[in-house]
Design brief:
192 residues; mainly beta; eleven-stranded antiparallel sheet; two-stranded antiparallel ribbon; 3 helices; globular
């Protein structure tokens, strides 16, 4: 799956990220079956005065517990404690999935969200049904906002949902200095 995301906030920082992963297979290494995943992360941050970028490509091998046991970067094998640091490279991807799963898993407990309907939307080469939910005075853990809009798409031929838009206005609380307006949206995706 490949996801291209766009993030902006009221401090005039725009971040465009491309997060790609491909499950290559499940080889056996030293007698243990592992899952081989190819990650590519590209990020471009733009403010009103400057632009910066980052590009990283890794092959990561996970054991059955989800721990990183081997990393291949630029033809080098990295194991042990150093391999665990690869988790920082794929952190944006893991945060996206973790935040998304936290929201989707607890979505039914947010009583003030109203279903605004479902429409077909296209993100790059991926077309899917997307349901829009809106709320005012939204609270999540130690975080409060005056309004929020979430769009949830259902991936074709699967039982998976994906957040295609998070738009939060008047955010205050944990990790927010002052009041922020935050928008995080899916630009394009490919499935397969």
């Amino acid at each position: 799956m490949s996801l291209q995301l766009s993030e902006s906030n009221s401090s005039s920082t725009a971040i465009n990220e491309t997060l790609q992963y491909n499950v290559v297979g499940t080889p056996t290494i030293n007698g243990s079956q592992v899952t081989e995943v190819n990650f590519t992360f590209t990020s471009i941050a733009t403010t009103t005065t400057q632009s910066s970028g980052n590009n990283v490509s890794l092959i990561i091998f996970y054991n059955s517990l989800g721990n990183i046991t081997l990393v291949q970067e630029g033809g080098q094998n990295i194991t042990g404690v150093q391999a665990a640091f690869a988790g920082f490279v794929v952190l944006p991807f893991n945060l996206f999935l973790g935040y998304q799963q936290g929201i989707l898993k607890n979505f039914t407990s947010y009583a003030n969200f109203q279903n605004q309907g479902t429409a077909t939307e296209t993100y790059g080469h991926l077309t899917l049904p997307v349901t829009t939910y809106t709320a005012s005075n939204f609270t999540y853990q130690n975080f409060t906002a005056t309004s929020a809009t979430f769009k949830v798409g259902h991936l074709p031929n699967s039982n998976l949902d994906i957040l295609t838009l998070i738009s939060i206005t008047g955010a205050t609380g944990a990790g927010v200095s002052g009041t922020e307006n935050i928008q995080y949206g899916l630009v394009s995706a490919t499935q397969g």
